[in-house]
Structure formats: structure tokens, C-alpha cells
From TrEMBL:
<dbReference type="Pfam" id="PF09203">
    <property type="entry name" value="MspA"/>
</dbReference>
<keyword id="KW-1133">Transmembrane helix</keyword>
<dbReference type="InterPro" id="IPR036435">
    <property type="entry name" value="Leukocidin/porin_MspA_sf"/>
</dbReference>
<keyword id="KW-0732">Signal</keyword>
<feature type="transmembrane region" description="Helical">
    <location>
        <begin position="39"/>
        <end position="61"/>
    </location>
</feature>
<keyword id="KW-0472">Membrane</keyword>
<protein>
    <submittedName>
        <fullName>MspA protein</fullName>
    </submittedName>
</protein>
<keyword id="KW-0812">Transmembrane</keyword>
<dbReference type="InterPro" id="IPR015286">
    <property type="entry name" value="Porin_fam_mycobact-type"/>
</dbReference>
Amino acid sequence: MLVLRGGTVCGGRDANHKRWASGSTGDKARENMKAFSRVLVAIVAAIAALFTSTGVSHAGLDNELSLVDGQDRTLTVQQWDTFLNGVFPLDRNRLTREWFHSGRAKYTVAGPGADEFEGTLELGYQIGFPWSLGVGINFSYTTPNILIDDGDITGPPFGLESVITPNLFPGVSISADLGNGPGIQEVATFSVDVKGPAGGVAVSNAHGTVTGAAGGVLLRPFARLIASTGDSVTTYGEPWNMN
């Protein structure tokens, strides 16, 4: 045993114990940091998986709505794969909004007389703008067609000499005066006659512009099924900011 000045008494075993205790505390701290790092990595991986799954689910059914009509048929209309890509306007006008629209609309009819169903399937937008002076909307779209006129087609046993098909989806150009803002306007960009218990239409890179809009422009896409009897059901998507 050693007696130090000042009356402090220390033993060799006590000093070693203190050094061991200090080393043990450092080891525990390092283990805690490793455990925290593993938990943090797991949380980041879980969040990444969540966002990945959300992106995949978006490339599918976006929204739908059903209605039982006056003939006890269930009319369902859906929007799929909706994507509005806002781009910088070619006219470089700050009051112009330009975008490209891709997506699909589907419908189903269930119940008595579903096979004899006839009606119209529409696609369009609700357009919201904070202020405008004589706003006009211009919308146009075209889809590819097959045109092989007097072509050399070999292979089919029935001996085709030429194939000419109409546009798979007709081209349309729409111009509408939305008047002075602020306000919300609804524009049906196109419609197609449908028959039978199920069907759908698709559009790819349909081009649209809004001119004369001061401030932000929001587009809410919709799909509407109108039966020949007058019954209708409309489903609306989430607003898209065209700023």
C-alpha cells in the first residue's frame, strides 16, 4: 500500500480497475454507435423501399368511380397511368403554360343488359387559374396509324396487296375562350363512342397549352362515362401544377 501526499491512499488493484472501467465505457460507446448506425441504415432502406413502391403503384390505376344507373347496371370509369409533363413554352411567353399528356381511360359495365350498353367516354381537364385576361386554351392530339399503300406484303396466305387503316385515334384541335379569371373552367378535350360491357381509350403525348394566364395554372384530369340513357359517372385525378 502506498501513502501519497495529501492523504490519498491508492492501491495497484484499484488503479487497474479504474483503467479497465474506462476501457469498458469506451467499448460500450463504440457498440452503441454501431447499433445506432445499423438502425439508421435499416430506416433509410425502409424509406427507400416505401418511395419505390409508391412510384410503381403510380404507374397503374390512378382513380375510379362507380355508379348504379337507372337500369340497375353498375357503371365504372377509371383513369390509368396519368402523366402531365409541364415544359418550358416554345413562345417564351411568361403567360403561356405548355404540357404533354399521356394516360388511359377505361370503363366497365356490370349488370342486366351490360352487353347492350352504348354511350360516350370523355377525357378532359378542370383548369384553375388565379387571374387572366382573355385566356384561351389550345389542345391537340394525334395518334399513329398504319399506312401501307401498294406495299409488297409477302407471307399472309390470303395475298394482301395493300393495307390502309384509319387513325387509331382521331386527331382533334380545340380552342376555347376561358374568359377573365380567377376561376375554374372545365374542358372536355375529346370523346369517343363506346359499346359493350368494357372498353377504353389511350392518349400519348397529347399537346396542350394555356395562354394569357397570370400566375400558376392547375390541371385536374378527368374521365367521364355517359350512357345513352343519360346516366353519367366522372372520376377526377389529382391536380397537376403547370408552373
